[in-house]
């Protein structure tokens, strides 16, 4: 049984879990102990993750790392002056008092830091996408396996009760056989398009530029590339890596799927021509082959940062008997299939029409009853946060040493097709992916 | 022809679409139906029941040879379109040909050439070209109502047996009542099998699948609204997911088409979808045009325009900066973007307008055809327009079956 499959079963509550021997051996945090956490990267996502994490009882922040001095100052303002801060993530990993790390750096640093953290014996919560390049994934999967540490990727939808409900409904056949899924993120604002604020004190003194660049191509100091790193291929993964990955994560969780075999994307940079080198409109189509878990279906993904009057995000699962629409809430529209096929006989001569109808009514007698269709909506309780739930799941795993759903393999199976969407876009070609082996084909 | 003369119309292919077209031609007025051709005798008998004066035949060449026929409606399966069109034009007839204009991309140039050489009128039967809602959308697009276009989505969702082309097969379908060889035409020879005739849309030998059959409508609508000549890159995928009744055409197809920048429009991406097993709903059809300042959704009889001016200030993400830096940032920001005093005037205005029409686009399309004949002008949806809509639709089939990206030169109308 693949690890992903096993984890799915775990979340549905049907199977007891065996904790791997290596994980048990390396367990450091007892069930009631405080978990000591450090955050590597305290930008917008990192700070958000950190605030969510420390709102959970028994989690204490002990260190923070960033390449911009202002964010270290800010971390102390938020978490107290005794917080250990550094520009060098290796100093965080070297600390014995750190049990777990949040990695919320630009994407190009994810895989290296994740592997280093696992090797240092830390549990890891890494922001999505888990890797910047598809080929970086298997070493992360191997590192997680070898070290027996917990690794959870930060695509919080996978922990959402709304998605869990969608998963149950689809498994129960509520919409019949799924043949197509659409998912989209439509935005129409400067901040939505990643034009984040650049601090007025950004300078070579307050920013460790070389550490930000790391293995990316050397360049002179240019703060826009750091503070808006999502807009540059050298550090980010564009809308496909950054946002398709959420959509893949959601779909793979709901459909119990390992991923697509064929990837095609197109689009362009249509509006936010601010020097970025990634597109702001991307559309993709993806072929999901039949597996034991689901029938063959086609996935259509879209991110549009210039969405006119139509900003929203969501998923639409289309089956033969209904449609399930998933956003903040979930809507299930069901319509039983027609009870008779109908006929098109008006081009036949009258006697032939009569003969046809006589036969037809033998097979399908006139019905008098009403047909029914239904629409149901499901809402999470007010105040429910999937972000918090996702962090709770992570820290629960840190204590219990039980595997998480969104582990390294799950993370790679979402990130792989997402970052390969960039390959398809930039190379203008069809990309083939092996979702079981998690490798590019050909 | 004098303005008051009746236009004498003949119908080749008296099935569902052809008979509907003939009805509309008669509703236009100033027209009469003089002949009908079909390869199933039942349809000829039905034509006599409905239009007692019509001459009937199984042989379309007899219709084309008639001196008393001015215009011909072609409502045959797709694999006959180009051949009958060319023969009819060459015989001096004006032609209304059902969509798609051709079954194969390679057939287009000969039809365009025949139209040009004969100087006859030729109109393709995708009524979206004459729909008031699409003409309104074209006007709004030209005015810049949605800002700069960047994406269009178009869909046709169905979920019924008839929607999925499981048309009725008459109980008297026999080799005696059907001219099977003439149905097959240049398609591969096969023994008599009436389902392939009465449900020909489901077979690649005669029809063009959902892409040729239905994407062509969506592309016609798109080209009307944007003035576009066509895409330069085409990719399609999908499968046969539900209607596994022996058909060889898929029932779910999704396609992405790249439209390059031209004098008429900026670069945009077109997403097309047909789903014949779209649970949970009635038939749904529409095109959604997304621009930088609004969205326009167009269907056969209505148009919704949602407008939203762009944000007046970009906003900020400063919560990760130290307090002192936040303050410095905000001070600068507010110099550039002062806080507007709350007032009636300071409110943003978003709007949604809905336009509706009761006109039948189909009837309008026929009116346009007969008006063009009387006024001796080139119809909007001529062979060139028809081919520019049909070829990318057919290339979606090529892409899907050959699992590859197709290139198309829309200006020169050449595939590669």
Instruction: List segments of chain A where confidence is low: pLDDT < 50 over at least 5 consecutive residues.
Output: 1-26
Low-pLDDT runs of chain B:
none
Largest sheet of chain A: 10 strands, mixed
Strand content of chain B: 15-25%
Number of strands of chain B: 16
Biggest chain pair contact, residues each?
A-B, 79 and 79 residues
Shape of chain B: elongated
Count of alpha and pi helical runs of chain A = 14
Shape of chain A: elongated
> How are the strands ordered across the major sheet of chain A?
14-13-12-11-7-10-9-8-15-16
What's the helical proportion of residues of chain A? 25-40%
**Distance between the first and last residues' Cα of chain B:** 43 Å
Q: Give me the count of strands of chain A.
A: 16
Radius of gyration of chain B: 25 Å
Biggest pleated sheet of chain B: 10 strands, mixed
Question: Which oligomeric form is depicted?
Answer: heterodimer
The helix/strand order of chain A is HHEHEHEHEHEHEHEHHHEEEEEEHEHHEE
Instruction: State the end-to-end CA separation of chain A.
Output: 26 Å
Give the overall pLDDT of chain B as a whole number: 96
Sheet with the most strands: spatial strand order of chain B: 14-13-12-11-7-10-9-8-15-16
Helix and strand content put the structural class of chain B at alpha/beta
Would you kindly provide a written description of the structure presented here, covering whatever features stand out?
The complex is a heterodimer of chains A (442) and B (416). Helices cover 34% and strands 20% of the residues of chain A. By secondary structure, chain A is α/β, with parallel strands linked by helices. In chain A, the strands form 2 sheets. Chain A has a 10-stranded mixed beta sheet with strand order 14-13-12-11-7-10-9-8-15-16. In chain A, helix 3 (44-54) links the parallel strand 1 (35-40) and strand 2 (59-65). In chain A, helix 6 (110-119) runs parallel beside helix 7 and helix 11 (238-255) packs across helix 14. Chain A is elongated. Mean pLDDT of chain A is 92; it is low at 1-26. Chain B is an alpha/beta fold and 416 residues long. Helices cover 33% and strands 22% of the residues of chain B. Chain B is built from 12 helices and 16 strands. In chain B, the strands form 2 sheets. A 10-stranded mixed beta sheet of chain B has the order 14-13-12-11-7-10-9-8-15-16. In chain B, helix 4 runs parallel beside helix 5 (108-118). Chain B is elongated, with a radius of gyration of 25 Å. The mean pLDDT of chain B is 96. Chains A and B meet through helix 3, helix 4, strand 8, strand 9 and strand 10 of A and helix 2, strand 8, strand 9, strand 10 and strand 11 of B.
């Amino acid at each position: 049984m693949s690890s992903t499959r096993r984890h799915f079963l775990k979340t549905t509550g049907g199977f007891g879990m065996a904790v791997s021997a290596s994980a048990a051996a390396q367990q450091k945090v007892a069930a009631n102990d405080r978990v000591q956490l450090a955050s590597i990267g305290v930008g917008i996502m990192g700070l958000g993750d950190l605030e969510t994490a420390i709102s959970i009882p028994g989690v204490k922040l002990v260190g923070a790392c960033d390449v911009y001095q202002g964010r270290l100052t800010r971390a102390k303002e938020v978490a107290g002056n005794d917080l250990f801060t550094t520009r060098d993530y290796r100093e965080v990993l070297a600390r014995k008092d750190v049990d777990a790390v949040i990695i919320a750096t630009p994407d190009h640093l994810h895989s290296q830091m994740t592997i280093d953290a696992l090797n240092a014996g830390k549990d890891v919560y890494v922001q999505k996408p888990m890797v910047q390049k598809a080929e970086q994934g298997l070493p992360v999967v191997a590192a997680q396996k070898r070290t027996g540490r917990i690794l959870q990727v930060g695509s919080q939808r996978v922990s959402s009760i709304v998605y869990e409900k969608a998963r149950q409904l689809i498994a129960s056949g509520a919409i019949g056989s799924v043949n197509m899924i659409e998912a989209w993120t439509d935005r129409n604002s400067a901040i939505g398009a990643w034009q984040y604020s650049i601090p007025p004190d950004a300078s070579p003194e307050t920013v460790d530029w070389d550490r930000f660049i790391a293995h990316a191509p050397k360049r002179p100091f240019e703060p826009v590339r750091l503070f808006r790193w999502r807009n540059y291929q050298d550090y980010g993964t564009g809308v496909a890596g950054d946002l398709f990955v959420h959509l893949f994560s959601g779909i793979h969780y709901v459909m119990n799927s390992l991923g697509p075999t064929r990837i095609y994307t197109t689009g362009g940079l249509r509006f936010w021509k601010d020097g970025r080198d990634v597109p702001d409109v991307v559309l993709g189509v993806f072929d999901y082959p039949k597996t034991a878990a689901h029938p063959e279906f086609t996935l259509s993904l879209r991110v549009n940062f210039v969405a006119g009057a139509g900003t929203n995000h969501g998923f639409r699962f289309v089956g033969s008997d209904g449609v399930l629409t998933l956003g903040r809430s979930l809507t299930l529209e069901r319509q039983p299939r027609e009870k008779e096929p109908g006929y098109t006989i008006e081009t036949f001569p009258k006697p032939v029409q009569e003969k046809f109808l006589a036969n037809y009514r033998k097979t399908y007698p006139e019905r008098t009853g009403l047909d029914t269709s239904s629409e149901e909506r499901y809402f999470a309780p007010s105040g429910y946060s999937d972000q918090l739930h996702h962090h709770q799941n992570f820290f629960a795993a840190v204590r219990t040493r039980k595997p998480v759903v969104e582990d390294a393999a799950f993370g790679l199976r979402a990130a792989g097709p997402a970052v390969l969407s960039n390959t398809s876009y930039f190379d203008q070609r069809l990309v083939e992916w092996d979702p079981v082996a998690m490798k590019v084909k050909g | 022809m004098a303005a008051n003369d009746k236009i004498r119309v003949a119908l080749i292919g008296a099935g569902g679409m052809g008979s509907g077209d003939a009805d509309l031609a008669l509703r236009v007025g100033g027209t009469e139906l003089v002949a009908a051709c079909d390869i199933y005798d039942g349809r000829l008998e039905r034509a006599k029941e409905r239009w007692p004066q019509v001459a009937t035949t199984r042989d379309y060449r007899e219709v084309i040879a008639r001196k008393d026929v001015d215009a011909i409606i072609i409502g045959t399966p797709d694999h006959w379109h180009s051949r009958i069109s060319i023969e009819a034009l060459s015989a001096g007839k004006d032609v209304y040909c059902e969509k798609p204009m051709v079954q194969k991309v390679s057939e287009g140039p000969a039809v365009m050439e025949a139209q040009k050489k004969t100087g006859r009128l030729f109109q393709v039967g995708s009524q979206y070209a004459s729909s008031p809602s699409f003409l309104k959308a074209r006007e709004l697009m030209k005015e810049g109502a949605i800002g700069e276009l960047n994406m269009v989505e178009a869909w046709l969702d169905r979920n019924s047996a008839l929607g999925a082309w499981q048309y009725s097969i008459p109980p008297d379908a026999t080799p005696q009542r059907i001219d099977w060889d003439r149905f097959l035409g240049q398609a591969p020879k096969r023994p008599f099998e009436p389902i392939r005739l009465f449900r020909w849309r489901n077979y690649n030998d005669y029809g063009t699948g959902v892409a040729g059959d239905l994407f062509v409508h969506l592309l016609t609508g798109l080209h009307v609204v944007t003035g576009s000549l066509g895409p330069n890159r085409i990719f399609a995928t999908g499968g046969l997911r539900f209607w596994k009744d022996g058909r060889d055409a898929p029932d779910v197809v999704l396609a992405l088409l790249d439209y390059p920048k031209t004098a008429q429009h900026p670069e945009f991406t077109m997403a097309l979808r047909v789903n014949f097993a779209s649970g949970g709903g009635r038939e749904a059809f529409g095109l959604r045009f997304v621009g930088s300042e609004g969205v326009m959704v167009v269907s056969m009889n209505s148009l919704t325009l949602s407008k939203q001016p762009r944000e007046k200030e970009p906003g900020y993400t400063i919560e990760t900066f130290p307090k002192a830096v936040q303050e410095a940032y905000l001070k600068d920001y507010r110099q550039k973007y002062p806080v507007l005093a709350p007032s009636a005037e300071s409110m943003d205005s978003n709007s949604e307008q809905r336009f509706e029409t009761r006109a039948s686009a189909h009837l309008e399309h026929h009116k346009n055809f007969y008006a063009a004949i009387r006024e001796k002008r080139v119809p909007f949806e001529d062979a060139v327009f028809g081919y520019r809509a049909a070829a990318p639709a057919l290339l979606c089939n090529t892409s899907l079956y050959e699992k590859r990206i197709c290139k198309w030169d829309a200006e020169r109308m050449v595939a590669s």
